[in-house]
Structure to design on (295 residues):
């Protein structure tokens, strides 16, 4: 239990995760809360998220702001007790009011007849909301293989439908025509792609980029002409890279950049969970002991 994602806009900090109370239980927002960072005040914004009994890995995984709206993706079974709005919803970012006209209808049937779907990541590009996670259908009955897209002007499902064969965890846009994807998959559109792939933003077709990696990356970051990849791997393209690597976007080749993170603290659990870029510095968070030779 605890926070999984943070989003700062102005003086408001949106906090999402697997929690049901904040401030020692004095407030009870389920999975999503908003703070004023100037005053440290918990704001009275309730998005009305809830889950069913015994639902594992529940909570909020991603926030995405679009003007006055905020999309919330995760693993929850209802909004304001309405189960037709599970795992992905659109809300007013200031009041928490739910836009019931947006009905993404993502689902993955569970063994007990419930909905085991989840949304792990989202990307908003040219009024299209791209969604990745764990689901097999959208709008209730349209087949979608862990990836889908919606037009934000009318909320309708688009025809964009690349098909992975396992959970999608991260989406990252290259700024022009490609969406990079990571997750627990071995194929994309029937093409062999272990854990990491790229698709055309318009057609959904798999691109020729096919890096060789032995573990699912935990995080992707595109910045200043490079794709940074972090996760629990020890090599990419048969080249040693401990948990962190980068590709040049212009030709998608692996670069010589190698921070050489140390996994000796616990090789089976070593991982990179988050990457942030500020000017010429990349900040890295995860389970590792040293970077290069520095603690």
């Amino acid at each position: 239990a605890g926070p999984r994602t943070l989003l700062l806009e102005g003086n408001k900090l949106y906090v999402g995760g697997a929690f049901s109370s904040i401030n020692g239980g004095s407030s009870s927002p389920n999975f999503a809360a908003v703070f004023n960072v100037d005053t440290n005040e918990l704001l009275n914004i309730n998005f009305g998220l809830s889950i069913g009994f015994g639902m594992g890995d529940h909570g909020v995984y991603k926030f995405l702001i679009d003007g006055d709206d905020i999309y919330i993706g995760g693993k929850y079974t209802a909004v304001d007790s309405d189960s037709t709005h599970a795992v992905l919803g659109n809300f007013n970012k200031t009041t928490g009011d739910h836009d019931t006209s947006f009905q993404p209808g993502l689902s993955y049937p569970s063994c007990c007849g419930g909905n085991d779907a989840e949304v792990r990541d989202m990307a908003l590009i040219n009024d299209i909301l791209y969604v990745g996670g764990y689901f097999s259908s959208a709008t209730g009955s349209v087949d979608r293989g862990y990836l889908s897209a919606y037009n934000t002007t009318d909320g309708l499902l688009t025809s964009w439908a690349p098909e992975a064969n396992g959970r999608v965890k991260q989406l990252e846009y290259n700024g022009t025509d490609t969406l990079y994807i990571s997750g627990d998959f071995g194929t994309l559109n029937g093409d062999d792609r272990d854990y990491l792939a790229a698709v055309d933003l318009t057609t959904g077709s798999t691109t020729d980029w096919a890096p060789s990696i032995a573990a699912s990356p935990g995080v992707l970051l595109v910045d200043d002409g490079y794709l940074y990849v972090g996760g629990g791997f020890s090599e990419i393209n048969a080249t040693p890279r401990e948990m962190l690597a980068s590709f040049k976007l212009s030709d998608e080749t692996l670069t010589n950049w190698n921070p050489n993170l140390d996994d000796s603290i616990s090789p089976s659990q070593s991982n990179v969970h988050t990457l942030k870029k500020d000017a010429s510095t990349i900040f890295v968070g995860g389970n590792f002991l040293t970077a290069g030779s520095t603690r």
